[in-house]
């Protein structure tokens, strides 16, 4: 199953540790390389609050991820 992870430039530091452990688990133990995107200029909440606004950084990423996941090759880039 394709995976997309996002973090923000201004996420609290303790969130980064859990994120890194999750990515490590997927890559090392499941041979899956998820897509990763850092939302620059955003904090932990503002990225999701931007969906449906003029700031399309997150929504564009989600739409591209869905489109790539629906490609016949099944390849989801990053």
Describe this structure in words.
About 45% of the residues lie in helices and about 20% in strands. It has about 80 residues and is an alpha+beta fold. Strands 1-2 form a two-stranded parallel sheet. Helix 1 links the parallel strand 1 and strand 2 (about 35-45). It is flat, with a radius of gyration of 13 Å. The chain starts with a strand and ends in a 9-residue tail after the last helix. The mean pLDDT is about 90.
Brief rundown of the structure:
With 78 residues, the chain is of the alpha+beta class. It has helices at residues 13-30, 46-49, 57-69, and strands at residues 4-10, 35-43.
Provide tags for this entry:
alpha+beta; two-stranded parallel ribbon
Main β-sheet, spatial strand arrangement: 1-2
- Number of beta-strand segments: 2
Strand content: 15-25%
Average pLDDT, rounded to a whole number, is 89
Radius of gyration: 13 Å
Major sheet attributes: 2 strands, parallel
Flag low-confidence runs. Answer: none
Task: Based on Cα principal axes, name the global outline.
Answer: flat
Structural class: alpha+beta
The H/E string reads: EHEHH
Number of helices: 3
Determine the N-to-C terminus distance: 15 Å
Percent helix, as a range, is: 40-55%
Q: Helices, strands, pairings?
A:
Elements: E1 4-10, H1 13-30, E2 35-43, H2 46-49, H3 57-69
Parallel strand pairs: 1-2
